[in-house]
Design goal:
This protein is an alpha+beta fold. The chain is built from 2 helices and 7 strands, in the order ββαβββββα. It has a 7-stranded antiparallel beta sheet. Helix 1 runs antiparallel to helix 2. The longest helix is centred in the middle third of the chain and has 12 residues.
């Protein structure tokens, strides 16, 4: 018997929001491409840990890597794009990391983001 198939892993991409004390993410894209998922994992592993930066504005984007069949969100990151072309990532807990300009361009490509550098 065939059942409806679903992806083992999916990258969900969205925009963080905050209004009247409510915070959340509006998701607008799902990526199930295995190559993109593997590239994202490698990119996260190669990001450089950093101390908490002075970030006053809301994040530019958000992504999470989910395993829908297991109801698990494996990786979650808020993204702030920097003037130098790099990016700061935050896991929502206490861990910050940075990406170089080249890594940030790759991340934008993986997540299909259309932000100015």
């Amino acid at each position: 018997m065939l059942l409806g198939c679903s992806a083992d892993e999916v990258i969900r991409v969205g925009n963080p929001f905050s209004n009247e004390g409510n915070e959340g993410v509006t998701f607008n894209n799902e990526i199930t491409d295995e190559e993109a998922i593997n590239k994202l994992r490698t990119l996260i592993q190669n990001s450089q840990n950093t101390d908490k930066p002075n970030m006053e504005n809301e994040a530019d984007a958000f992504f999470q890597l989910d395993r829908p069949n297991k109801n698990v969100s494996e990786v979650r990151r808020y993204i702030w794009f920097q003037d130098d072309g790099g990016a700061v990532l935050f896991d929502g807990g206490s861990n910050y990391s940075t990406l170089t300009k080249a890594q940030t361009l790759e991340l934008k490509d993986i997540l299909e983001l259309q932000f100015a550098p």
